[in-house]
Design brief:
alpha/beta; DNA polymerase, domain 1; binds S-adenosyl-L-homocysteine; TIM Barrel; 10-stranded mixed β-sheet
């Protein structure tokens, strides 16, 4: 921005005004930059594009979780979810419209991949969520756990992270941003080298046979290779990799599976986050009982693996993990899907 201003013979301090307008105030058009001269506003509008994520629907769940339906200029839609867990207020965002990874237990997979989001569109999701917050609310954390596989959209992901963490941008600490992946190895290594965001890896099975059935990506990047990379990641001190494990009743939830998981994780700086399966229409799996979840957790803890259970939030409006499929919104008639 400074360079562009310089080339036009404008003072470079304008860069700060412009970026503050875009990211701090969240202006939707350069016209709204009333502190810069009109000629410069016009020049900006001619040169740069501010993608807007239009909030087309907000579904509030009984537990306060809010699911947003967001639409971009070309008609493509994604969902984001605001999750209040005081003192945290977390925004779960999408990196792609749809998803091409094909995980059997995930509703988003059924949409297929529509397209990658651009970096600026990912940032626009955060700006859109901010517009619907209550005046006293402030986002504290961002998780890339909405639609899509963030590491399959690497360049745009990193561009978005840069804006989300920059002082001239949204100013989030990278420690408050988590990127969750099915385990695309080359990009995983790059992400840890090039950024300091938190990494979460969706594991969900402790054998290649089962994991390949549930997550086709495992045929490309099988468990041994995945866990080897995790052992070698240049993680900052005391940082651990979170492994998400979706518990599917009768499929991967018995205690033997827990022990197998613990033994595979040996030597990895790991913590496990268990996610009891969240159902969706037409799903072939079921959620295990709370007792089963608790015993699975106990077993892992006894094997020395730090393990937490993710509470399902926003289940009643299909806003929980794995449920994002552009459903349950009052979409205005005639709107392109
Ligand atoms: N594509 C990335 C980002 C999505 S994160 C990834 O897979 O990691 C969403 C998390 O929800 C993943 O850990 C995924 O395994 C999990 N998930 C998918 N479907 C689910 C379902 N039906 N119930 C519970 N968790 C689910």
């Amino acid at each position: 921005m400074r360079q562009w201003l310089k080339l036009r013979g404008e003072p470079t301090y304008r860069a700060q005004q412009i970026l503050a307008g875009v990211y701090r105030s969240g202006i939707l058009s350069f016209e709204a930059l009333t502190n810069v001269p009109r000629s410069l506003r016009l020049a900006l509008a001619g040169e740069f594009y501010l993608p807007e994520a239009v909030v087309e629907g907000v579904s509030a769940a009984a537990d306060g979780t809010r699911k947003l339906l967001l639409r971009f200029g070309d008609g493509v839609a994604v969902e984001s979810v605001i999750i209040a867990d005081p003192p945290r207020l977390t925004l779960c965002i999408s990196s792609q419209a749809g998803c091409g990874m094909g995980c059997r237990f995930c509703a988003t997979a059924r949409l297929g991949l529509r397209r990658n989001l651009r970096g600026a569109e990912i940032v626009a999701e955060v700006l859109a969520a901010r517009r619907i917050l209550e005046p006293e609310e402030r986002l504290t954390n961002i998780v890339f756990m909405g639609m899509g596989e963030p590491l399959a959209n690497y360049e745009n992901l990193v561009e978005a992270i840069e804006v989300l963490t920059a002082n001239w941008g949204l100013g989030f600490s990278p420690r408050r941003i988590t990127v969750s992946t099915v385990g695309l190895l080359p990009q995983m290594e790059r992400l840890v080298r090039e950024t300091s965001v938190q990494l979460a890896v969706s594991l969900t099975a402790a054998t290649d046979k089962l994991r390949s059935e549930l997550m086709p990506v495992n045929r490309r990047f099988p468990l041994d290779a995945l866990l080897d990379v995790c052992r070698r990641l240049p993680l900052p001190q005391r940082r651990r990799v979170t492994f998400e494990y979706v518990l599917l009743a009768g499929i991967n939830d018995d205690l033997e599976e827990a022990r197998r998981l613990a033994s595979r994780l040996r030597g990895v700086r790991a913590k496990v986050n268990l996610i009891p399966f969240n159902p969706f229409p037409g799903a072939a799996y079921q959620r295990p009982t709370e007792e089963t979840v608790r015993r699975f957790q106990q077993e892992l803890l006894q094997c020395g693996v730090p393990t937490t259970v993710r509470r399902s939030r926003g289940l009643d409006v299909q806003a929980a993990c794995g449920q994002l499929a552009l459903g349950m919104h009052a979409v205005p008639e005639g709107a392109a899907q």
